[in-house]
Design goal:
The protein is an alpha+beta fold and 429 residues long. The chain has helices spanning 5-12, 40-48, 56-63, 76-90, 136-149, 171-174, 188-204, 210-222, 226-244, 297-306, 325-336, 351-369, 373-386, and strands at 20-25, 31-37, 67-72, 105-109, 117-120, 128-133, 255-264, 267-276, 279-289, 315-318, 341-344, 394-403, 406-416, 419-420, 426-428. The strands form four sheets. Strands 9-8-7-10-11 form a five-stranded mixed sheet. Strand 10 (315-318), helix 11 and strand 11 form a beta-alpha-beta unit.
Length: 429
C-alpha cells in the first residue's frame, strides 16, 4: 500500500478537468510513467481510488508513485502529441509499449503518383514514414485530422481516373471532406504540393506556405480561375486551423522558454514552458508565497532562475513588460556564451504559447489555493481592467430598483476569491 495515497488524493481533488499530460514520479523524482488524458482530473483520480481494480502493472506503478506533475494542453490532440514526445524523451519504466518495437505505430505516405496518408503498425518500404508513435490512437487520430483538414481522398479508387459515365463521386466529395481527385480536376503536381503541406503539418504544424498560397489565390482570382482560387482558399483555411491548434512542435521557436505568471491573495505562481529544437520538452512551476507580481517580479525571477544552473535558451518570452530586458539579455549572454533575447509579447503568434504557460501557472496555483484555474485568471484579468495592484479577494456588487421615487429596493451579491458566497447575499429596503 502506498503511504502517499492520502496526499495524492487530496492533490488530485483540486486538479483541472482540462486535457493534458501527467508524469508520475517516484521518491527520487524520477519519471516512471507518462500518460495523456482528455480530462486530467478523472484520469489521474482513477489511479488513486481505494477500490480501483488495477492490472498488476498499474498496481505496481501506483505503489511507487511519490508525486506527479502535469502539463495542461488546449486539446486532446495536443495531449496525444505531447505524450508521444515526452515518452520518447524520458523512456519511463512503466511505459512498456514504447520499449518494444511491436508497440510502435507509424504514419506512411505512399510512393505513387497520387500518394495516400495512412496509419500503419509497422514500417513500410518506399514513400515517407513518420514516427514512431506511442499507440495506434495517436497515429490514427493524426491521419484522420490531416485527411479531413486537407480534403485528401480516403476511398479505395486508383488514381488518376475519371468518374465513369453516369456515375457520381462519393459522399465525401459532396460534404466537402474530399477534393474530388476522381473528378480529374486535380493535377498530379498540385496534389503533390498539397501532400507536402500535409506532411509539413504532421511534423511541425507550420504555416510557412500560407503567404505564398495567398499570392497564388490572388493571381488565380485575377485570372478569373475562380475554382482554383476557391481550392487555394480552402487549403489556406486548413493550414491556418492546423497551425493554430498545434503548440507542441514549432520550428520557429527552436530554443525558447516562455514565462508567465498568475497571482492571488496568497502569492504568485510562475510557469516556465521549455522548448528545445522546436519541441515542447518540459514545464516547471514555482510558487512564491506573499509575493506580488509588481514591475520587478519578472526581472528578479529570470535572474534567480537562470543563475541556479538552468539551461539558458536563445529566446526568453515573458508575459509582462520589464524595463530590464536589455540588461537581462546582456547578463544571460555572459553566462551562456551565446546571444540571448528577452522579449515581451502582448499580441501576435507568441500569444498562444504565453496563454499555454499562463494556463499551466493558474492550474498549479489552483491546487494550492483550492480554486479553479479559470477563477484565478478571471480575478487577475479583473484587477488589470480596474487598475488594482493585486487581484481582489472580496467583491460586493449591488443592484438598485425603484418605481419613480418610491418602492426602492436593493440587492447585494458577494464573491470571495472568485467564488459566490450565497450566505452573504442581502436585500435592502
Amino acid at each position: 500500500m502506498n503511504e502517499r495515497l492520502p496526499f495524492l488524493r487530496e492533490k488530485t481533488s483540486k486538479l483541472t478537468s482540462l486535457p493534458g499530460v501527467y508524469k508520475m514520479k517516484n521518491s527520487d523524482g524520477e519519471i516512471i510513467y507518462i500518460g495523456k488524458a482528455k480530462n486530467l482530473k478523472n484520469r489521474v483520480t482513477s489511479y488513486f481510488r481505494a477500490s480501483s481494480d488495477h492490472t498488476p502493472k498499474v498496481a505496481k506503478m501506483v505503489e511507487n508513485v511519490y508525486d506527479y506533475d502535469f502539463i495542461v494542453t488546449d486539446t486532446e490532440y495536443e495531449a496525444l502529441v505531447l505524450e508521444c514526445s515526452l515518452i520518447k524523451q524520458h523512456k519511463p519504466k512503466y511505459n512498456i509499449l514504447l520499449k518494444d518495437d511491436k508497440g510502435y505505430h507509424y504514419i506512411h505516405v505512399s510512393d505513387e503518383k497520387y500518394p495516400r496518408i495512412t496509419a500503419e503498425n509497422r514500417m513500410l518500404t518506399g514513400g515517407i514514414t513518420l514516427g514512431p508513435y506511442t499507440s495506434p490512437g495517436v497515429a490514427k487520430q493524426t491521419v484522420n485530422e490531416v485527411n479531413k483538414a486537407f480534403m485528401l481522398p480516403v476511398c479505395k479508387k486508383k488514381f488518376p481516373c475519371q468518374t465513369a459515365a453516369g456515375k457520381k463521386p462519393c459522399l465525401n466529395y459532396h460534404i466537402k471532406q474530399c477534393m474530388g481527385v476522381c473528378m480529374g480536376k486535380i493535377s498530379a503536381d498540385e496534389y503533390s504540393t498539397i501532400i507536402s503541406q500535409a506532411v509539413d503539418y504532421i511534423k511541425t504544424g507550420s504555416r510557412e506556405s500560407v503567404e505564398k498560397l495567398r499570392e497564388e489565390m490572388e493571381k488565380a482570382a485575377e485570372a478569373l480561375e475562380f475554382e482554383k482560387a476557391a481550392r487555394l482558399r480552402d487549403r489556406i483555411s486548413a493550414i491556418t486551423r492546423a497551425s493554430e491548434t498545434q503548440k507542441i512542435f514549432d520550428p520557429e521557436i527552436m530554443s525558447t522558454d516562455v514565462i508567465a505568471s498568475v497571482s492571488n491573495s496568497a502569492g504568485t505562481c510562475v510557469s516556465v514552458i521549455i522548448y528545445r529544437r522546436g519541441r515542447l520538452v518540459d514545464k516547471e512551476a514555482y510558487f512564491f508565497e506573499g509575493v506580488e507580481n509588481d514591475g520587478s517580479f519578472y526581472s528578479d525571477f529570470i535572474v534567480q532562475y537562470y543563475s541556479t544552473g538552468h539551461d539558458i535558451p536563445e529566446n526568453i518570452v515573458i508575459a509582462q513588460e520589464t524595463e530590464d530586458s536589455g540588461i537581462l539579455s546582456e547578463l544571460l549572454k555572459e553566462q551562456s556564451g551565446h546571444a540571448v533575447h528577452v522579449m515581451y509579447r502582448q499580441r501576435g503568434s507568441m500569444m498562444k504559447y504565453i496563454m499555454l504557460a499562463r494556463n499551466n501557472a493558474s492550474e498549479f496555483l489552483s491546487i494550492r489555493a483550492g480554486r479553479t484555474g479559470r477563477e484565478l485568471i478571471a480575478l487577475e484579468e479583473l484587477s488589470k481592467l480596474l487598475g488594482l495592484p493585486k487581484p481582489p479577494r472580496y467583491i460586493e456588487a449591488y443592484d438598485i430598483s425603484n418605481l419613480g421615487s418610491s418602492a426602492m429596493c436593493a440587492s447585494m451579491v458577494v464573491f470571495e476569491n472568485g467564488r459566490p458566497q450565497k450566505k452573504m447575499y442581502r436585500s435592502f429596503q
